[in-house]
Amino acid sequence: MKSAVLPQVRIEPALRADVEAVLGEGESLSAFVESSVRQAVQHRQALRDFDERCSASLKHFLATGESHSSEEVLEELRKRTAARRAQLQAGTA
User: Fold this and answer.
1) Is residue 60 situated within a structural domain?
2) Count of domains for the chain
3) 32 CB contacts (<8 Å, ≥6 apart)?
4) Is 62 within the bounds of a domain?
5) Residue 27: inside a domain, yes or no?
């Protein structure tokens, strides 16, 4: 697959200086921009997925009236976390 080029973006000189000031050892501006774009895409995908789960949960609630208190949810999460922690400590990941 051929690679593609992102469009050039005009920024203020001060922003470019700020970006260049935080580049890692041997990191290029292009690598920084690519990494930033990847992170932004992943973040937006996570937000979209979260919104979809919220909508599905609301639809389920409206259809069934079934809901769980925050205490019930947190207790279930604590149980799952403890079980997974025990599993990892036993070496059976």
Assistant:
1) yes
2) 1
3) 19, 22, 23
4) yes
5) yes
Q: Give, in order, the Cα–Cα distances in Å from 76 to each of 21, 38, 69, 71, 79.
A: 45, 33, 11, 9, 5
Q: What is the per-residue pLDDT across 18-72, written as a single tens digit (0 to 9) for each? A: 999 999 999 999 999 999 999 999 999 999 999 999 999 999 999 999 999 999 9
Residue 49 in tokens = 């997925």
State the chain's maximal CA–CA distance in angstroms.
56
Question: Domain containing 44: what range?
Answer: 13-89
pTM recorded for the entire structure: 0.70
Q: Give the model confidence (pLDDT) of 71-83 as tens digits.
A: 999 999 999 999 9
Is the CB of residue 67 less than 8 Å from the CB of residue 59?
A: no
Q: Examine residue 83 and state whether it is found in any structural domain, yes or no.
A: yes
